[in-house]
């Protein structure tokens, strides 16, 4: 089973990054949801993963894991902070962005708890797990 993750981990991480990027573009360009500051910051860490992981997947270059893990971890931490701002009442006041859309606005609320930051956090967590499993050992 570990062999499977080692062989296909980069591919799975790349697929998640592609889906997350296409999802963010769908919400902003088709649904016309204006991204808040924290959404933009998460995009800054997600979008390069599509290109870098795509090239690494094609070349089966597992050394890229050590360069992309920081992107996915930092992006995940930003997404976690965004989720906390949306879901924790004591932190909602901190979600008032100075310019543009407030960071505590829920454009979507599927099943009563799934918001855009939760989708982003899930994507970053999956990418981090897949990259960790795909890393080159030894």
Automatic annotation (TrEMBL):
Pfam families: DsbB. Keywords: Chaperone, Disulfide bond, Electron transport, Membrane, Oxidoreductase, Redox-active center, Transmembrane, Transmembrane helix, Transport. The chain crosses the membrane at residues 7-28, 40-58, 65-84, 110-134. One of its GO terms (molecular function) is protein-disulfide reductase activity. InterPro entries: DiS_bond_form_DsbB/BdbC, Disulphide_bond_form_BdbC, DsbB-like_sf. The keyword Chaperone applies. The keyword Oxidoreductase applies. One of its GO terms (cellular component) is membrane. Belongs to the DsbB family. BdbC subfamily. This is Disulfide bond formation protein DsbB. It comes from Seinonella peptonophila.
